[in-house]
Each structure stands twice: as C-alpha cells, then as structure tokens.
Design brief:
The structure is a single chain. The radius of gyration is 21 Å and the shape is globular. The strands form three sheets. A six-stranded mixed β-sheet has the order 1-2-3-9-6-4. It has a three-stranded antiparallel β-sheet with strand order 5-11-10. Helix 6 packs antiparallel against helix 8 (151-161). The N and C termini lie far apart (62 Å). With 405 residues, the chain is α+β, with helices and mostly antiparallel strands. The protein has a single domain (6-403), classed as Cytochrome P450 (Cytochrome p450, Orthogonal Bundle). 50% of the residues lie in helices and 10% in strands. Belongs to the cytochrome P450 family. This is Cytochrome P450. Pfam families: p450 (PF00067).
C-alpha cells in the first residue's frame, strides 16, 4: 500500500468561527485518522481525529510540544498576529518536552497539590450557593453562562492565584480573545500583550507582598535549588488562568445544555440512578470543552495508517472529534450517562495530562449538583437558539438562556 504525504492532499479549511464543530468533525473523521487541514493564515497542519490514534500520539515520544520542532515556525513562515501564536510560544509546561517538561511540571506540582484542591471544596460549594441566590433573585429567564457557569470557575482560579476581584473580568476578556481562532491579528497581539502585562503585575505584587495563594507558592517553588524563571512563571500563570476557567466554564455550560436536551438522562441523575460525576465524564466525551487544541510536532517521520506525517510537521489534537469516534464508542452521538467505560481524552493523555483535572471535576460536579438541587425544574428558555463561540479551540455556546419557574 502506497503511503501518502501532505503533498498528496488538498487541506480541508477549518471554520475559524467554529459554527458547527460536530458536523465538521464528522467529515474529518470520515476522511481518516489524520487529516490535513488549513488553519487561519493559510497554516497547514494535521488534525488527529480518531480516538485510538490520538491516544497513541499523545503519549508518543516522537511527538513533541516545543515549537522549535515545527519547520513552519522555525523558518519564520507564520503570519504576523497569527491568532494561535500564543499556544505555540507561551513559555512553560505546555510547550516543553522531556526533562525540561518534567522539571517545570515538578515545580508547579509542588504548589498545585491535591491537598490544596481538596481544601477548596467547601469554598467552591459556598460560592456556588451564593451565585444561585443571585440567580433566584432574577425571577425567571437568565443566561446561565453569564450568571453561573462563568463566575464560579473565575472566582476559584482568582482565589487560587490571588487575583484581585477587579482584575478577573479583564483577564477573562483577554483570555477569550486568546483562545479565539477567529481573532484579528491586531486583537490577538493586543490580548497577548495585555495578559502578559496584567500577570506580570500580579507576580510583582506577590513578590512585594506574599500571600497564601498559588502565585506566591510558584514563586517560592524549588527543585534542587532551581526556580521558575520570570518568563516561565508568567507563562505558567497564563496557562492556569486560561485552562483554569475557560475550559471549566465550557464544561459546565455544555453539561447543562446536554441535560436539558435529554430529560430522560437528567431524570436518571436527579433520581440518584447515576452520579453527578457521570454527567461530567460523559459531557467531556460527548461535547468536549476543547475542540481542537494546537499544537504538537513530529520529531521524526510517523506513519499513521496510509499517511506519513513528516518530521517538522504539526498536529492538532482533535478532542471533540475523538470523543464521538464511533469506532471507539458505541452510539457515539448519543448522550448516555450509563456508558461504560466512560474514559475519554478530553483532559489529555500521557505526559501532558491536565494537571488541574481534579479541580475541574470538583468545580463541575459541585456546580451541577448545586444548580439542579436548587432548581430541579430548570429548563431551556423558549425560542432561544444558542450561538457557538467563534473559535474551533473552544467548543461551547456564547449564551445559554434558561428559565426557572
């Protein structure tokens, strides 16, 4: 059988506005486990869309995260203001490999411990109840994303990092632009500069006046006398800010949307037949909060089926596509809380598995249990048609209008 390379394909242009990711992903899956796609700016990469193939490549030592492995980046061929550039260049764990990655992850793990996460549980519960008190006062229809799904994880990551309340909305707005594949070059550059400036100010303030927060702990973290550099520190905070609230915001929104669209499944969990943890795991599979995550790079030639991914070429981790791979999940397009086993790849796999997975699960389970415990009759607002987020990186909707009677 002949092996084809990128030269043998016409790339599929991904919709930068993410208007119908699941339909688009179905076409990509049908085309094969690795499909050549075109990103904004004419940048061509491989999208890895099949579950088993993605799982293998996420743990494959021949696939790296250091952008210096990517020929297009190394040769300076990315367009100025490319909207996904920060994913490629942010210093820290997310762009490091091998010993460097282990060093950075080890330093961050000293501060981001399971004990610190577990100690947050009562505060997360209390904050969820406070937000629901505010929702109850709205008396009727409201945007669940704006009034509940966003402020809860933003408050949690703000508390963890020691952010001032007035900094949180500004950071959220900038991070929204950062994860948008449809952002203009000017907006992308401005968002990156704004985030680095704000987070740099946070670091400076914590150096001057340490607190009981993750930023102070990261500043103090050591491994054999080693510390995070200033760039690594700000890059790590940026990663935690974006991953710590954008993805959890999407997860809570997507879970509520799926439950309201599947009342029989909602009844199962309200009746106690399944746990809220099952809702979180099935949502992560069925409607992953991250659609396409950029980027990884082939450190050497890798054969995937009848396709050869050549050294120096880049790959997208197509989490939302892999979650509905019918070759791995029976009835993949069905939202089924009794699905066994409930494993998925939406929190990653291999050495870059999400360090904050425990916190994300804690927040999402607390949010859903509290929301439906307070409002078991919650329903979608009549006539409301949710608009997708304008990105193929984020996978959710901009608003979720619901009604409480």
């Amino acid at each position: 059988m002949d092996v084809r390379t990128a030269d043998d394909f016409v790339p599929v242009r991904l919709d930068p506005f993410g208007r119908d990711q699941h339909r688009e992903n179905a076409g990509l899956r049908d085309a094969g486990p690795a499909v050549l796609v075109e990103l904004p700016g004419g940048v061509v990469v491989w999208a890895v869309t099949h579950h088993d193939t993605l799982q293998e490549l996420l743990a494959d030592p021949r696939v790296g995260k250091d952008a210096r492995l990517w020929t297009t980046f190394r040769e300076g061929r990315l367009p100025e203001g490319w909207p996904l550039l920060n994913f490629v260049t942010v210093p820290g764990m997310v762009t490091a490999d091998g010993a460097d990655h282990r060093r950075l992850r080890g330093l961050v793990s000293q501060a981001f411990t399971p004990r610190r996460v577990a100690e947050l549980a009562p505060a997360v519960q209390a904050r969820a109840e406070e937000l629901l008190d505010g929702v109850a006062a709205l008396e009727g229809e409201f945007d669940l994303r704006e009034h509940f799904a966003y402020p809860l994880p933003m408050w949690v990551i703000g508390r963890l990092l020691g952010l001032a309340t007035e900094q949180q909305d500004a950071l959220h707005e900038l991070s929204d632009t950062l994860v948008s594949s449809s952002a203009t070059p000017q907006a992308a550059i401005a968002a990156q500069r704004g985030l680095y400036a704000l987070l740099g100010a946070v670091v400076a303030a914590k150096r001057a006046e340490p607190g009981d927060d993750l930023t102070t702990a990261l500043i103090a973290a050591r491994e054999e006398g080693d510390r995070l550099s200033e760039q690594e520190l700000v890059g790590t905070l940026l990663l935690m800010l974006v991953a710590g609230h954008e993805t959890t915001l999407n997860l809570i929104t997507n879970a509520v949307r799926a439950l309201l669209a599947h009342p029989a499944q909602l009844k199962l969990v309200l009746d106690g037949a399944v746990e809220w943890s099952a809702v979180v795991e099935e949502t992560l599979r069925y409607d992953s909060p991250v659609g396409q995550f950029p980027l990884r790079y082939a450190a050497e030639d890798i054969r995937v089926g009848g396709v050869l991914i050549r050294r120096g070429e880049a790959l997208l981790a197509s989490y939302a596509a892999a979650g509905r791979d019918a070759a791995h999940y029976p009835d993949a397009d069905v939202f089924d809380l009794t699905r066994q086993p409930a494993r998925h790849l939406s929190l990653g796999h291999g050495p870059h598995f999400c360090l904050g997975s425990g916190l994300a699960r804690l927040e999402a389970e607390t949010a859903l249990r509290s929301l439906f415990g307070r409002f078991p009759g919650l329903r979608a607002a009549e006539g409301a048609v949710p608009e997708p987020i304008a990105s193929f990186v984020s996978n959710s909707v901009r608003t979720l209008r619901v009604r409480v009677d």
